[in-house]
Amino acid sequence: MRNLVADLRAITGPGHVITEPDVVAGYATDCTRRYSGVANCVVTPGSTAEVADVVRACSARGALIIPQGGNTGLVGGSIPAASSEGRAAVILSTRRLNGLEPVDRASGQVTAGAGVTIARLAAHAAWAGLRYGVDLGSRDSATVGGTIATNAGGIHTIRYGPTRSQVAGVTAVLADGSVVGNLSGLTASSSGYDLAHLLTGSEGTLAVITQARLLLRPAEPPAAVLLCGTAGIAEAAELTGLIRTAIPGLLAAEYVDDAGLALVRQAAGLPAPLPTGYQGYLLTEIAGTRDRNDADQVLEQLAGAGLSADSVLAQDARGMAALWAYRDRLTEAIATAGVPHKIDVAVPASGLAAFCAELDDVVRDAAEAGRAGAAGAGRESNAGGYPRLIVFGHVGVGNLHVNVLGPDPDDTQVDEAVARLAAAHGGSVAAEHGVGRAKTGWLGWTRPPAEISAMWAIKAALDPHGLLNPGVLLPPETATPPPETAT
Ligand code: FAD
Ligand code: MLT
Ligand code: ZN
Question: Exposure of 144 by Cβ count < 10 A (0-12 exposed, 13-18 middle, 19+ buried)?
Answer without folding.
Answer: buried
